[in-house]
Structures are given as structure tokens and as C-alpha cells.
Amino acid sequence: MKTLFFESKRADSTTLWNDFVRKAQTPQGAMLCAVVGGKLSEGINFSDELGRCVIMIGLPYPNKNSVELNEKMKVIVLN
Predict the structure, then answer these.
(1) How far apart are CA 70 and CA 76, in angstroms?
(2) Which of 9, 19, 22, 60 is deepest in the core (most CB within 10 A)?
């Protein structure tokens, strides 16, 4: 079973990264859950066994100027 590492606002990113690298290079491996645009996403090179698979999950923000969104908001406000 792989060790899971999570980026958080409180975690020291250097320590987290070093722990992840150390564990990822073992036969067991490791998984890192980080935030796009977070501390860990800036200038880190995920090479070789450090980045075998990348899965991105996002919640896109709607365009506030979208006609469709504005019409839906009008209906919500009027009801």
C-alpha cells in the first residue's frame, strides 16, 4: 500500500517534498496530493518515479459575464 502525502496550508512544503521523494523511491512508492497553484506546484520537477501518473480534478469557476449564468441567477433571485 502506498503512503499518502497531502499538501496543506500549515505543512512545511520542503519537509513534505523531501518525505515524499524518500518514500517514492522505495519499492512501496508514494502518492502526493497537492493543489494546482499551491506551494508545491511552483518550480518542482516531477521526474522519473516521482511523477508516474498525474490526475487533475478541478471545479471550474463560471464566467461571471456569461449570459446563461446571468439568466439563471435572475430566475433564482426572482423565485
Answers:
(1) 10
(2) 19
